[in-house]
């Protein structure tokens, strides 16, 4: 940008009169001659449309013209400074012998040289010919292209149309308007759809502030960046796009006081390059009435959604994947998921429609699967007001929300202080994909202080149960251990090969039993009809501490009358103890549940200790291991390793017989003597 050399101007134009300069007009006389328009142009050194941001660099002005065409036709003679009075494109210009015209801040001068606009601060699109209520594509693009070093493009109040996408060069660091609903940019192409209204490839340390975008169904997105970092999106209103209102892939980006409303597709998208969408924040914003996902977030870490409203988004409020440390705090959710998102896998080829507000996925994308290289972990959802579908007199055809949170991958997740406006309109607080091949509870899940705490499974497992039920902890959930630890009373459930023996090993002092080679299932039935009817219709978990050598494993299996379910174990033990469990949905008509153990692989026997069956929500920490098991049998043991002092009570004592047996010498099976003679 050229600047007027005041000393040179004064040295070449001296003389007399009121200004003491021959042929010059004083600033006072010039302002008087320009009238109100001219006064608005240069009074107090301000430029039109950006009060206080531009400064004139001369106290003495040579001449004035009405508009830019007059400037182009102006014969300057010896004059080196001209005022253009046009309130949109006008300003103060100084002459330079060379320069490159750009039709906004630099114009070709009659007779050679150029006129340089004198200003500080932003490049005003109106200087380049942009007009409200008119196609301003060329002028807007010219304003962006004119910036050759980090600079700002400014849109005065108005309604600007574009017919082509605007390309944002990397040197543009700020795009500002007068405010939401004050500065509008509308997509008005002819017989085509714009990929984006504003398209950038790379950017860093940017700002988009106080603008409204309306795609009017003619643009896939309002702002689209494949790589944008350290950027603030402040006070934006985006509506009318077809695919996504705002797509940004990059780190350290913030969305503050934005309204992303009534877009046909998604509201905001932050995903793309692996490990790129880090330190992303959505604060005090409203994402509502979008036809897709309110916000799709993936491929990063430390993402925070705070003090925002996520409402009436047809597919879901938030879908998150491949993310470490994701937090949703102090937000309002209402009636998201009316159309829902349909997930499929090999066991559910026809798809299951999920109508949940927040989807937490472990697949690395918006599909069901487990990708260990792109996990989802450390999630906090806290302080939420949730209004489900059908609430407050709004009828969604009687279809409830599936849940507030849906997931196929739960690892270190906290869901707390969620207030459900009408819990009768939601099937559960948390829904878990029910196929163990594509779903897992990987780590602790803490559910506390919510007005609704129900957990359910969705989808068919086709015999493969979801692992990790023992990690789920729901405050105030109480459960007994429904599984009898008396393994001498276990039955052969299926197959015919293999045996069940008392083991010489212990886990934390707790006696273990072992499964020999074979495919036999060993366990016992749980009476859900008369003994434990409270289990009907509930989600429960079954697990145990297991130990197996390399090439072996112990599999957990269940049989509930409707079919068998097992964990996803393959022979891959490491000779260390580990706790494993599976989730079991108990049907309301089930009368008996069989939970059993099966050895996989060949070689050393598989070890099992401390079997547990409990209600989901009573985590493993709720159950004390202890060291003694009240063994019962119809006779003294004749297999397995028993230690001196261990006892087995008679399962059917009779008068004149023994109350039980005690091992007096350790061994396999050891030496046994009766004790506690029962009087006749």
UniProtKB/TrEMBL annotation:
Keywords: Hydrolase. It holds the Pfam family Pect-lyase_RHGA_epim. Residues 1-20 are annotated as: Disordered. GO terms for molecular function: hydrolase activity. Residues 123-338 form the Rhamnogalacturonase A/B/Epimerase-like pectate lyase domain. The keyword Cell membrane does not apply. This is Glycosyl hydrolase family 28-related protein.
């Amino acid at each position: 940008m050229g600047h007027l050399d005041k000393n040179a101007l004064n040295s070449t134009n001296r003389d007399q009169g009121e200004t003491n300069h021959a042929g010059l007009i004083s600033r006072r006389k010039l302002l008087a001659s320009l009238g109100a328009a001219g006064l608005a142009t240069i009074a107090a050194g301000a430029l039109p449309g950006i009060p206080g941001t531009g400064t004139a660099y001369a106290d003495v002005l040579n001449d004035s013209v009405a508009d830019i065409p007059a400037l182009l036709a102006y014969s300057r003679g010896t004059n080196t400074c001209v005022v253009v009075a046009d309130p949109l494109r006008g300003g103060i210009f100084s002459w330079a012998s060379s320069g490159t015209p750009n039709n906004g801040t630099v114009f070709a001068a009659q007779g050679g040289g150029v006129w340089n606009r004198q200003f500080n601060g932003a490049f005003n699109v109106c200087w380049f010919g942009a007009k409200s209520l008119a196609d301003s594509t060329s002028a807007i693009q010219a304003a962006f292209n004119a910036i050759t070093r980090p600079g700002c493009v400014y849109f005065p109040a108005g309604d600007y149309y574009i017919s082509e996408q605007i390309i944002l060069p990397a040197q543009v660091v700020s795009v500002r308007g007068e405010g939401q609903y004050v500065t509008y940019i509308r997509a008005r192409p002819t017989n085509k759809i714009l990929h984006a209204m504003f398209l950038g490839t790379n950017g860093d340390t940017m700002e988009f502030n106080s603008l409204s975008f309306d795609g009017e169904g003619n643009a896939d997105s309002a702002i689209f960046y494949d790589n944008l970092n350290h950027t603030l999106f402040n006070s934006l209103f985006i509506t009318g796009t077809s695919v996504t209102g705002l797509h940004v892939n990059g780190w350290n980006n913030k969305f503050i006081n934005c309204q992303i409303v009534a877009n046909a597709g998604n509201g905001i998208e932050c995903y793309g390059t692996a490990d790129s969408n880090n330190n992303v924040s959505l604060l005090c914003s409203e994402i509502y009435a979008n036809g897709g996902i309110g916000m799709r977030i993936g491929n990063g870490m430390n993402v925070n959604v705070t003090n925002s409203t996520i409402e009436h988004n047809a597919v879901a409020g938030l879908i998150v994947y491949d993310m470490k440390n994701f937090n949703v705090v102090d937000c309002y959710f209402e009636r998201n998921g009316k159309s829902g998102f349909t997930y499929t896998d090999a066991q559910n080829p026809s798809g299951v429609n999920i109508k949940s507000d927040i989807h937490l996925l472990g697949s690395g994308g918006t599909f069901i699967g487990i990708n260990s290289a792109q996990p989802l972990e450390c999630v906090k959802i806290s302080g939420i007001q949730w209004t489900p579908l059908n609430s407050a007199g709004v009828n969604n055809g009687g279809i409830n929300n599936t849940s507030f949170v849906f997931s196929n991958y739960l690892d270190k997740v906290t869901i707390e202080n969620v207030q459900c406006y009408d819990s009768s309109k939601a099937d559960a607080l948390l829904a878990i994909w029910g196929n163990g091949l594509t779903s897992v509870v990987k780590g602790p899940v803490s559910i506390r202080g919510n007005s609704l705490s129900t957990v359910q499974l969705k989808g068919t497992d086709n015999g493969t149960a979801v692992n990790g039920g023992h990690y789920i902890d729901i405050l105030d959930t109480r459960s007994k251990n429904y599984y009898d630890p008396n393994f001498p009373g276990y039955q052969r459930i299926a197959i015919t090969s293999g045996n069940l023996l008392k083991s010489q090993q212990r886990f934390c002092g707790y006696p273990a039993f072992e499964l020999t080679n074979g495919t036999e299932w060993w366990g016992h039935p749980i009476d859900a009809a008369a003994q434990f009817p409270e289990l009907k219709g509930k989600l429960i978990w079954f697990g145990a501490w297991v130990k197996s050598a390399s090439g072996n494993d112990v599999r957990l299996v269940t049989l509930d009358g409707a079919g068998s379910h097992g964990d996803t174990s393959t022979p891959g033990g490491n000779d260390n103890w580990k706790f494993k469990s599976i989730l079991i949905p108990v049907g309301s008509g089930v009368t008996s549940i069989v939970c059993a153990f099966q050895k996989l692989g060949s070689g050393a026997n598989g070890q099992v200790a401390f079997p547990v069956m409990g209600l989901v929500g009573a985590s493993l920490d709720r159950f004390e291991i202890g060291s003694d098991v009240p063994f019962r049998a119809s006779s003294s043991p004749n297999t397995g390793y028993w230690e001196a002092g261990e006892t087995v009570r008679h399962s059917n004592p009779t008068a004149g017989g023994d109350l039980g047996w005690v091992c007096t010498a350790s061994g396999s099976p050891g030496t046994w003597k009766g004790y506690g003679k029962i009087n006749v």
